[in-house]
Structures are given as structure tokens and as C-alpha cells.
TrEMBL record:
GO terms for MF: transmembrane transporter activity
Entry's Gene Ontology cellular component terms: plasma membrane
Membrane topology: Multi-pass membrane protein
Location in or out of the cell: Cell membrane
Organism annotation: Arthrobacter oryzae
One family name in Pfam for this protein: MFS_1
Domain Major facilitator superfamily (MFS) profile: 227-412
Cited InterPro entries: MFS, MFS_Cyanate_Porter, MFS_dom, MFS_trans_sf
Transmembrane spans: 23-48, 60-80, 92-109, 115-138, 150-173, 185-205, 226-249, 261-280, 292-310, 316-340, 352-373, 379-399
Protein name (record): MFS transporter
Keywords, sorted A to Z: Membrane, Transmembrane, Transmembrane helix
Length: 412
């Protein structure tokens, strides 16, 4: 994992805890934060037809609502280390959870005379900004405060992030059926975010923080061909990953599945991602060259997405299982490239910032293109073709990124 505070001068100290029990409490809080970082994407997708029909959303609004949060993941990522140096990582993380809770509460609000759209846009934007800060700061806190339990804590918090997407996909439509209101189903997800904010509050407020400076010098990743290949690999996998969160449920519902069944299929597919994310990094790091695994998992993901659109509906569990296994492996090996293509933690941190800024920014165009193609053609068939092409591009850049070269070397 990459520490967002690695270039702080002096180095940020660990979170102050008074006992082993308090350290366990901190670990639980960090995992619970991870459990709230993807529900905003999958919960909205689960009730998208109901929101569209009830709120009368225009086509452009659907495109924006599925694109903006991913775009903000890239735009706000560079801000997180600056805020952490100024206020302390714990307090920034607390503020991000407050912003996430507020955004989730705001999202379903109906504005008198203006309908649901203004609050949906503002709430979704707040959620995207908050998640961006958490994405950057969480790995650093885990690495800094649990150096002797890094494998356990890293596995728990990354699994929690994947589980959050599965929970949003699987529970939102049943919540809608019970309550009869899509707004109540979306409001529900503010509850766990608010609880985690309250749990983390005493940890964050008692931290003392002195201002840190920023280290300069070292490798310039923006001039490295290896860094650009890794970043392109990350960007194209992000295009597919966030399109799955945003559009797979609507795709299945357009194909004739009811909301409960579609949510269950998407949730299961996301859970299958855990298998890939657990085993793919270990397999990738066994070799100095990752060209084969990068290519294979990219093609599995693009093919699984296309089969979910075009394949016989009777085999949808197989298609989405292939998609889940490919996507989980693809995301994991893309992140693994940060470590295997760099020689030191400072270069890894800079490559991570480049990947998140460019990768998520470009990656958000995937959800944008799917929405625009659906709006223009009236079906998701064009999106299936699109992701065959994107899967091929991911495989191409994954092959190039997998070559045994390093950022900062003369050949890199």
C-alpha cells in the first residue's frame, strides 16, 4: 500500500491511542470507513429506473449523476495530502465522513419548485469528493498505524470496500420494496456513514498535529513512459469498473430481470471480485513480468461485460461471474503495478497520485459514454461493443505496463 504522507517533513506520527484495545478500536473504525466507500455508486444504480420515472430526470442528468462522483475521485485526490499536512490525516478523514454523510442525506431531498435534481447533483458531488479523500488517506493510516499487521488490515479494509459495493447493489432495491420510496432506500445509506462518523469522532479530535512540509526532488513520474503505460492501464480498468457499478443493474433490468434479481446478480458479481483481488496480486508478484496476467484479466473483464449485454439471459450468472472474477483481478493487478514498477516508496507514492488523478479522471468517461450511447440508441447494445474495445485497450496497455521495467530507469 502507498502512504499519502510518505513525503511529509517531518514524518507524521502514528495515531495516538492509549492501549491495545484502543488500537483495535481504531482498526475497526478504519475498516468501517471502507465499508461506506462504494455504496453511493451501487445504491443509485439499483433504483435508477424508479428514480428516473418518479423524479422525471432528463437523459443528461443520468449521465452526469453516474459520471460526476468518479470524476471527483481524480480531481480531489491531489488535495488529500495537502489537507493532511495542514490538519492531520485523522481530522481530514473525519471531515470526509461528515461530508459523505451530508451528501447521502442531501441526495434524495426534493427542493420545492425544482424537484429532486438539484439535491441529487449536489449530494452526489459531495459524496464523490469525500470518497476521494478517503481513498487517498486510508491506505496511509493503515500502513502507518498497523505496520506489524499490514497484511491483515490491508486485506480487511480492501475487502470492506468491495463489500460496500455489494451491499449497495443487493440491499437497496429490497429497501425500496419495503418502504415504497426510492428516497427512503437511498437515505438509508446515510445511517451507517453517520454511525462511523460518530465512532471515529473521539479518535480524530484528540490528535495533536504539527504542520508538515513537503519533500522535493526524486523521480519525475510524468516524464516516464512506464508510468504512462501503468496509468493508462489503470484508467481503462477504471472505465470498466465504475461502469459495472453504475450500469450493470440497469442493463440487467432492461433485459427483463426484476429489481431484486438484478440486485442479487450484481451483488454476487461484486463479491466474486474478492476472489480475484485476493489471488491475482500474489500471482502477479511471483514473476518479474506481468504481461500475461494483465492481458488475460483485461480480456476476461471486457468479455464478461459484453456477454452480460449480449449473452443468453439463462447464463447470466456465468457471464457476471466471469465479469466479477476478471474485474476483481484486473483492479488488483493494476494497483499492484504501483509497487512492481517502482524501486522506492517515494516514487510509488508519486505514481499512485498520477494514477488516481489521471486514471479516475479518464475512467469517469466510461460511465459517461455508456449513458450517452444508451440515450442516443435507446439500448445498451452499443455499450457491449464499447467494452469489447475498452477491454482490448486495457489488455494492450496492461501488456506494456507488465514488462519488467521501472519508473526512473533510463529505459523507463
Amino acid at each position: 500500500m502507498v502512504d499519502a504522507e510518505i513525503e511529509d517533513i517531518p514524518a507524521a506520527g502514528p495515531t495516538r491511542v492509549g492501549s491495545r484495545r484502543a488500537l483495535v478500536y481504531l482498526g475497526v473504525c478504519l475498516v468501517l470507513i471502507g465499508l461506506n466507500l462504494r455504496t453511493v455508486f451501487s445504491s443509485f444504480a439499483a433504483v435508477l429506473p424508479e428514480v428516473t420515472a418518479d423524479a422525471g430526470l432528463p437523459g443528461w442528468a443520468l449521465v452526469v449523476l453516474t459520471t460526476v462522483p468518479v470524476t471527483l475521485l481524480g480531481l480531489f485526490a491531489p488535495l488529500a495530502p495537502f489537507l493532511a499536512r495542514r490538519f492531520g490525516a485523522e481530522r481530514v478523514l473525519l471531515g470526509a465522513m461528515a461530508m459523505l454523510t451530508a451528501g447521502l442525506l442531501l441526495r434524495p431531498v426534493e427542493v420545492p419548485g425544482a424537484g429532486h435534481l438539484p439535491a441529487l447533483l449536489a449530494g452526489t458531488a459531495a459524496c464523490g469528493a469525500a470518497i476521494s479523500l478517503c481513498n487517498v488517506l486510508l491506505p496511509g493510516l493503515v500502513k502507518r498505524d498497523f505496520p506489524h499487521r499490514l497484511g491483515l488490515m490491508g486485506g480487511l479494509y480492501t475487502t470492506a470496500i468491495v463489500a460496500s459495493a455489494a451491499l449497495g447493489a443487493g440491499l437497496t432495491y429490497p429497501l425500496f420494496r419495503v418502504s415504497g420510496e426510492w428516497s427512503a432506500a437511498l437515505w438509508f445509506w446515510a445511517l451507517p456513514a453517520g454511525v462511523v462518523f460518530l465512532l471515529f469522532l473521539p479518535v480524530a479530535v484528540r490528535q495533536r498535529h504539527g504542520r508538515q512540509g513537503h519533500a522535493h526532488g526524486g523521480v519525475t513520474v510524468w516524464r516516464s513512459a512506464v508510468a504512462w503505460n501503468v496509468t493508462a492501464f489503470m484508467a481503462f480498468q477504471a472505465m470498466m469498473s465504475f461502469s459495472v457499478f453504475a450500469w450493470l443493474a440497469p442493463i440487467l433490468r432492461e433485459r427483463g430481470m426484476d429489481g431484486n434479481a438484478a440486485g442479487l446478480v450484481v451483488s454476487t458479481s461484486i463479491l466474486v471480485q474478492m476472489l480475484g483481488s485476493l489471488f491475482a496480486p500474489a500471482l502477479a508478484t511471483r514473476f518479474g513480468d506481468q504481461r500475461i496476467i494483465n492481458t488475460v484479466v483485461a480480456l476476461l473483464t471486457g468479455g464478461g461485460f459484453a456477454l452480460s449485454v449480449f449473452g443468453p439471459l439463462e447464463l447470466i450468472w456465468l457471464w457476471t461471474g466471469v465479469l466479477g472474477l476478471g474485474q476483481g483481478s484486473l483492479t488488483a493487478v493494476a494497483l499492484t503495478m504501483i509497487m512492481v514498477r517502482t524501486r522506492d516508496a517515494h516514487t510509488a507514492s508519486r505514481l499512485s497520485g498520477m494514477m488516481q488523478g489521471v486514471g479516475y479522471g479518464v475512467g469517469s468517461t466510461g460511465t459517461l459514454m455508456v449513458g450517452q450511447l444508451h440515450q442516443a440508441t435507446g439500448s445498451f447494445a452499443a455499450a457491449g461493443v464499447l467494452f469489447l474495445a475498452i477491454g482490448s485497450l486495457t489488455a494492450f496497455f496492461g501488456y506494456r505496463a507488465g514488462r519488467s521495467r521501472f519508473v526512473g530507469d533510463p529505459s523507463g
